Amino acid sequence: KIASCIDKVSNGTPVFGTVACEHNFDLRRSRTIYNGAIYQDNLTIILLSGPVRARFFLGALPLNNVQKHQAVITASDGNILHEINGLSAAEYLRGTGLAPNDILESSKSIPIVVDYRDGTPPVIRGFYTFTPDGSAICGGEMPVNATFALSTLDSPDVLLSTGQLFDEILTREKVSGMLLISCLVRSYALDSEPLAEMELVGRRVNKAFPYQLCYAGGEICPVYDKEGGVSNRYHNFSFIGCMFE
Question: Which of 39, 161, 177, 196 has its CA 20 to 30 A from that of 239?
Answer without folding.
Answer: 39
